[in-house]
Every structure is written in C-alpha cells, then in structure tokens.
Amino acid sequence: MDTEPQLLSVQHFCVHDGPGLRSVVFFKGCPLRCSWCQNPESWSKDAELGYKATACLRCDTCVSTCPTGAMQAPGHWISDACTRCFRCVETCPGGALTQFGIKRPVENLLAELSQEFALYRQSQGGVTFSGGEATLYPTYLTELLIPLNQAGIHTALETCGVFHLQAVRPWEQLLTSTVAWEAFSAQRLWQMLCRLDLILFDLKLMNNLQHQQHCGSGNRRLLENFSLLTQLAQAGRAPGVWPRLPLIPGITDHPDNLQALAEFLHQSGVSVLTLLPYHNMGVDKFSWLQRPVKYAHPMLSEEALHTATQILQSNGIQCYTSGEENYAHLYAADAQIAL
C-alpha cells in the first residue's frame, strides 16, 4: 500500500482547475524539482516546518516549548533533532511558524468536500486533485474517488506526468488482447486514473536534456504517459487528457520548444493547450523552508504571452487561458490516431 499522504490544503471556489466551480485538494510530494517551482513546500512527502521571519515577534516561545531542544533560536533549528511534533507552531503567538502537511483520513476529507456537492452540481464543477503529485497515492485516491463517483461528482487530476504506468508494446494490444488489457487495468494506478473524468497534464520542455536540467529528470516517461493516455482516451478507454504549458521566460517559451510541443500534440491527436504564465508570487516560500531560490525572474510579460500564443496558433494549436477552456473541444476533429 502506498504511504498515507500529507495534504497541504483544500481550497474551495476555484475556477482555474477544471470546469465549473471546484474544490482543489493539494497533495504533498513531487518527483520533479522544476527550477521555477512556486510551491517548494510540495516537494517532500513529509510534513515540514516553515518560518516566516517577517511575522516573528522574537519572543523565544518556540525555543522554550521545543521538547527536543532542536529550536536554537527563532527560525533556527537543528533538522536532525526536530521530531516534527509542531509544538512550536501551536504556541507561536505571531504565526511565524507554519506546518506544511497534515494527514487526513479519507472519511474526514470526504465530509468536507460533501458540503460543496450542491455547488458542484449547480456550476457543473467538481473536485480536482493537485500537488505536488497526487498520483503518488493511488490507493488513497481510489478510496476517495469511489464515493465521489457514486455521488456523480466530476473529478479531475492535475499532474506533472511522471508516474509508472506499465503497458505492453505495441499499445494496440491493449485494445485487441483481453489478456493485455486485463493486466494493464489491474494496476493500482490505472484503477485510480480510470475513475477520473479529466486529466490536466503539464508539459514543459520537449528536449530531454533541457528537461533534465530544469526539472530534475528527463521527459521520456511523461511523454510516453501522455501519448498512451490520449490515445486510450480517443478509444474511449481513459479520461480526457488536456495539456497545459507553464510559460517560463527564457526556458519553456523559446520558439523551438513551442514548435516541438505543437508537433508532439498533433502526433497525439490533440490541438488544444492551456497556457500558464509564470508568476513569482511564491518565491518567499523558499526562504520559509530555508532553501535557496533556483529561479528568480519577473513575471511573464503580456508581449511574451502574445508571442508564444501566436507561435502555437500558427502551428495549429488552439490556446486557452486557465479557466477559459472549452473542454468539449478536447481532441482534433480530424485526428486519426492509431494505438
């Protein structure tokens, strides 16, 4: 069984993470280390302690209440001695100390989400699982998805695409061989994925070496996962897969990357893409976690966004801003993609 996940937060009334009004559940743990990441608190699977210096009252309450003596001074603790009991967070009068990550039973989380069921139905919205990377916890998600499916609630997944979905080659055997399909569909990960209605799949850099440099791993597996899932979706065997591109100045917005991405999408029978312009509003989180900032850059300019959009649309890709997607137009009308 996969490890019980740490959750970062549950946000309600969201409009950028799938159709309609949604609740977004943020999971902790991610296999990538993108240099521009604005959520470094989502990297580790474990609960973490954060410190916001600007909110500190310098009262030393955290030092006096630390049961192991790990807290040497406000904002300075010995990681190896810290047991993550978070007593310091509970007693901090200024709110300078923060706990990133909390475990919640499925029943507890479902009870919170169920309060919004009427709103989901009225707005044709639902629940989106995000992160970090939620696919790290297929057992937990399946247990959550079953009652959501039974209640008729739309579900979506935001993913970086790095997960282990095993399939025989050539992939056409999945549709022609009962034995191959039964082996594929028995995977815990697939048993979770097939219960979703929509997968929002992030694509970043098409060059493998550049992906390794900027994201911490190569892109072969995630590109294969995207191709497999989109082709299964077009055969009616998988949820719809909608691609998204974080537009990072000087990295993912390079014309060569955009053209290569457009070609890859066409090969997969997809002609739509959501553009996610870079913002730098999460840079402070690195200091909260006592980590160096890997990438500091001004927010993506309107001119750069316009240029990227023109390049993609000239290559036959319909671009959308987050929250404005037309999910009815998921795949190219003339797509003739074979497994």
Structure characterization notes:
It is a single chain. This protein is α/β, with parallel strands linked by helices and 339 residues long. The protein folds into two domains: 7-45 and 103-329, TIM Barrel; 48-100, Alpha-Beta Plaits (2-Layer Sandwich), CATH 3.30.70. It is 33% helix and 18% strand. The protein is globular. The model is unreliable at 332-339 (pLDDT under 50).
Number of helices: 13
CATH class of the largest domain: Alpha Beta
Q: What is the fold-level CATH name, i.e. the topology of the largest domain?
A: TIM Barrel
The whole-number mean of residue pLDDT values reads 93
Shape: globular
N- to C-terminal distance: 31 Å
Give the tally of β-strands. 12
**SS-based structural class?**
alpha/beta
Strand order of the largest sheet: 1-2-7-8-9-10-11-12
What summary fits the major beta sheet? 8 strands, mixed
Integer count of domains: 2
Strand content: 15-25%
SSE series: EEEHEEHEHHEHEHHHEHHEHEHHE
Relevant CATH superfamily of the largest domain: Aldolase class I
Which architecture name of the largest domain does CATH use? Alpha-Beta Barrel
Our Rg estimate from Cα atoms comes to: 21 Å
Helix content: 25-40%
Q: Which stretches are poorly predicted, pLDDT < 50 over at least 5 residues?
A: 332-339
